[in-house]
Amino acid sequence: MSKNLGNLFAEARREKGLSLDEIAEMIHIKAEYLEAIEEEKFDFNLPGIYRRGFYKSYADFLGLNLDDMMVKCPVKPFETMESSRKRREMVSQVAKKTQEVNLEKVKTSFSDDVEGESTSQNGPKVSPVNRAAAMKIVGMVGGVILLILLLCVIVITISSPSSLPKEMTKQEDVNELVEKKITMSAKGDIKVMVRSEEDRAKLFSGTIQKGGEQVITYKAPIQIFFDRGEFLVIELANGELLHPDSGRGGIQIK
């Protein structure tokens, strides 16, 4: 029996040994929204683009299969403004056409009634069977128009870009292939664990003693977890220094 979405998120989080508050601090999404995702309450009071974005960011942080998870996401992609405008124009055109068909139908019906009354006075009546057949044809035409409208809306929806946040750009794909390096320095004894975000393989796990350094070489994005962030300084490949918040926590580095 397949697990529901909420369990997938909750179990992946527990495997990392992290709380909702800790993850919220690392990916900058409120813990209440992460909890709502784990409880499958996707109707929290935010626009769909944010709800879908939070869902994706949380799944990405936990190392879940993004392609599979985005297919299962209950929050559907939003329409672009251009797609929405085209859809409204098409609906308006079809509605106008349907109105014209209905108006013509009324005129035809009225004309038939007048002709029927005239004929009843001066000759044989118009057969009601012919009138029913005409009404059936008009109804079929209207149904065909509505079917075309539905198909057009489906095509526009499928062809519209997926919602934000977007998948990794080509440049980011190239960057992932480049080997990168960080240096972790300790201002005091600190326990650190470094793992690959992609396959969760541990790159380092142990204690860096005061004044010591640990160099990590990686390609895919990594996650760094620590017990005393105030003692840790991380130097990126470009020379930028990161100073994590004090206490137990973690950060993500691409």
Topology:
Layout: H1 5-16, H2 20-27, H3 31-38, H4 48-62, H5 66-72, H6 81-122, H7 128-159, H8 170-177, E1 180-186, E2 190-196, E3 202-208, E4 213-218, E5 222-226, E6 232-235, E7 241-242, E8 249-253
Antiparallel strand pairs: 1-4, 1-6, 2-3, 2-5, 5-8, 6-7
Biggest beta sheet attributes: 4 strands, antiparallel
What is the H-and-E element order? HHHHHHHHEEEEEEEE
Q: Helix tally?
A: 8
The residue ranges in which pLDDT falls below 50 over 5 or more consecutive positions are: 159-176
Structural class: alpha+beta
- First and last CA, distance: 35 Å
Which percent band covers the strand fraction?
15-25%
| Helical proportion, percent range | 40-55%
How many DSSP-defined strands?
Answer: 8
Strand order of the largest sheet: 4-1-6-7
- Tally the structural domains: 3
The Cα radius of gyration reads 31 Å
Which CATH class of the largest domain? Mainly Beta
Instruction: Identify the CATH architecture of the largest domain.
Output: Sandwich
**What is the CATH topology of the largest domain?**
Immunoglobulin-like
The geometry reads as: elongated
Mean pLDDT: 79
